[in-house]
Amino acid sequence: MTVTTPASSPARSDGRRRVAIAVAACAALVALGAWIGSLYGGMIDLRVYRMGGSVLLHGQALYDAKLPGSGLPFTYPPFAAIAMVPLAAVPWGVALVTWTTISVLCITALWRTSLPKTFWSFISQRKRTAVLVALTVLSLLLEPVWQTIQFGQINLLLTAMILLDLVRPNNARLRGFWLGVTIGIKLTPLPFLALLVVTKQWRALRNALFGLLATMAVGFALVPHQSWRYWTSVILDANRVGGIAYTGNQSFNGFLHRIGNNAGWVQPTWFLLSAVFGLLVLWLARRYWLADERVTAIAVLALAVLYASPISWSHHWVWIIPLGVSLIRGINRVWGLNPAVATGVLFYGLFVLRSIWWVPYRDDRELDWSFWQAIPGNSHLIVGMIAFILLAVTSRSLPKASAGEQQ
């Protein structure tokens, strides 16, 4: 009897070859698309990331540096700048194509992970790649996704890292570690730790804290002065990230500042709204997690991050990919297929419309919006809240089993 080891399996080798071809093809298409779309002259956030890596390479002060032409500072933890050193060390075109290819592949990964097994069971193996490619291309029409691509933002990568990490089996090696790493790159995923606490995922919580501490340790080991400065002063400076009332800030804080500007009631109201909504989100996310609806639980928790953060730029809302899938599944479970399809078209269609940009913005023109201008100007918040309410209503049909409550 002949035994073939997995390492020498022709199927595995063929799979790796297909992945390599797919990545190469994606990179070629990205390069062509960037040229057609004139992205080589833009990608402002990628330029900031590369500036952070370049500053470290030249031994300069990370948090005093400003991007030439725009004056934008580096606002992320030191580990993020360390991770960007490879992109700073290569020519701009190489960095752009590499970074954008990673983001595009993350879109594919988000769809592949978010869509349930029941969906894939209706599609033949040969057609699955075509479906994923189509979904990835169509996703570029979504306002948060396209904003992430054209700015060269990191959101798609962080979202994919969190989702792919936490949907793994509870006994998966170092599950939760990559969540911790994302927090060490950009602090906004920090509330995801609360999901691990309320669902008693102590092992994943330990790994997440280990991942975060590992990024901090790397920072202090390589750039101790910059790390000390960040964790003791820069982290508290909210003015480094831009105008709070700007329409691109789709958070409770942005909404309240557009109504009251810097009035005394804005800050305490933001704290109260964030606390109440955060508790409601935790309750709903826990309910979905215990019903073994992991993607939905994670997507629901992402709403707390988006609403409660001081700044949630519209490109942070790439979480709408798994959130929309979860919403369609919930509607289908309770009211059937036709309402579910209609809901999906409306949900994703509203983000395709990009209505937050229909109204006057910049230079504090948001402070003078009429009631009717405020509706499209806050449309991400409105659509997200409707999705939350519908997911709360449809959660009543979930099974009571505690499949997700394992350490």
UniProtKB/TrEMBL annotation:
Stored Pfam families: GT87 (PF09594)
Name of this chain's protein: Glycosyltransferase 87 family protein
InterPro entries tied to this protein: GT87
Annotated TM spans: 19-41, 79-111, 131-164, 176-198, 205-223, 265-285, 297-320, 340-359, 371-393
Membership in a protein family: Belongs to the glycosyltransferase 87 family.
Bilayer topology: Multi-pass membrane protein
Source domain of life: Bacteria
Principal place of residence: membrane
Assigned keywords, A-Z: Cell membrane, Membrane, Transferase, Transmembrane, Transmembrane helix
Signal sequence region: none
Compartments it resides in: Cell membrane
